[in-house]
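Here we describe the complex-level prediction in full. Unlike the single-chain runs in Section 2.1, the two entities below were treated as one system.
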Amino acid sequence: MTEDLRKNLHRGIDSIQHDVVRLSAMVAEGVVAGTAALLDSDMDAAQSLIDADDVLDELTNDLEERCFAVLALEQPMASDLRSVTGSLRIASDLERAGDLVVNIMKGARRMYGQDLPVRLRGIIQQMSEESARLIRLASDAYAERNGALGSALNEIDNRLDELQRDFIAAMFDAHTNGECELPQAVQLALIARYYERIGDHAVNIGERVAFIATGALPDYAAMGARGVPGAGSAEEE
Amino acid sequence: MSQAAVLLLGLLAGVIGGAVVGGVVGARRSRRLGARRVDDELRASGLEHLTGGADPAAAVVRVVREVRRSAAEESRARALLVDVLDGLPPAIVLFDSAGVVVLSNSEGARMLGGRHGEAIVARVVRDLLATGGDRAVELAGPPARHVEIAMRVLADGHRVAVVDDVTERRRLEGIRRDFVANISHELRTPVGAIVVLTEAMIDQAEPAVLERLGAKVHREAVRVSEAIDDLIELSRLEHDAGLDVAPVLAASLVREAVGRVAHAAEERGIGFRCDVSGGVDEVLVDERQVVSALVNLLDNAVKYSPAGSVVTVGVRPCTTGAGARGVCFEVADEGIGIPARDLERIFERFYRVDRARSRSTGGIGLGLAIVRHVAQNHAGDIAVSSREGTGTTFTLRIPTPVDGPADHEETS
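The structure predicted for the assembly as a whole is:
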């Protein structure tokens, strides 16, 4: 009856896991809703997303506190310990991803009133879909303790990196054709970078999940060889 | 159940007590004493109908049977209730006064343990436990969803949450709301222009000006006339589903349709690439309807393509959304594309992605509604994939006996 002996610990871990899943759902929703606000120039929606970040921050702080409480009061061991420390870091990755949505919204505000070239709109839509998908996959991997899926996110993220490169190329074209002024181009370049960073946070979460599941940290040396932009699977596709 | 347990303990005490006493004063008397104590217990618990037996052990057996029977009935009733609730579309969760889940249907359990959007909805349900009342939640998705949550407090302090997905209802409301606004925009604008133009003509004596105004009136009149033709065509497709099905060459359908938009395409410098080499020979369709659908798709492709680009038309064997073998007509352009948020609405009557552009491109927004009806009349479907700035591909899928090698699908 070990479960009964550590009832508080397991209850604590369950509630932390539940809220990390919810936090990631809120971030993924924010990415999709934020992109709609950006493409529709909907400043009300943009403002409400900026405001909604406070809720995200609050939940992250609350999660952090609960993780520390479990660590201090329950002294978890082995996979329980990895789960709590992993959740701690995953929550902060999610919080950062949420901040990036706020950055995208502020970019949308600065570009208000300027038409976006259609080709760029198309790529923004794709980047948004990809980054929201990565967050959702990271959340699935976390909820299922699926280390294999967690590790696979790095490869899946290549698509988002490619899109960012396409976006920059399309932006140069648009600028050359006079469809896009320099201030707008700067905002757009930043926005593309924000989406790409959201994907990177999802990859980080995936690595943490793999650590929770297996206890092994990712092999950065091996990943470095594959992770060079333009090399590896990105080229094979 | 705890009341039954107390009762059972009381009864057992009676039996054991009787046995102990029996050891001293004789078996028969002890049984009588035990039986009396058992009857007292039963009466105290409101179970008079089980009293009166001479043997306390038999009374215990009777009570155990009674408890089992009522427990079985209770679990049967509960299973029936859960079955009924599972059959309902909304998620339903019953909480006790402490907020612990007592009962939920399968949708409710899925929502409470769910991820992504479900996790957000589950949280709102928990928030409502304290306050009660209703709340609407919009989820960005994908897919985007509208959810309505109602929390009711029952007389005994239990709370029941009903979570209803109203996405489809909202969509239909949107269509109904926009319909009147759109139809008045499409029909009244040209008529209003004609009124103003003819007023100007009445006061005008200058032949050159009259001619110019006349040409404008003519253009607007043609616009109204086309709109009415489209409306009649659509209404015919809606009410007269009777198909005039006959075998016809797929390639000739495509050729006929391309021929009808060739003039408009030429004016805009747009070329066609026809790919009818997919192995489809004869198809069984209503020729007039399918050509009309293809003309509408090609007409759109031409309108929304940049000058000098190419529109691709293809025919190939495929499987429809419903899983039937059939044929796919594909029309792909390299145009401006359709924003993701409009994709699901473009088949509605009069729906416009960009109303500001609609006057320059012509048409009244019925083309795709006509295509959808042609697909439905043939028990087929229409699909679209699009990227802004990259282009749009429409796929009209119609079930029909397909000629050619049966394993074509697998190899293509």
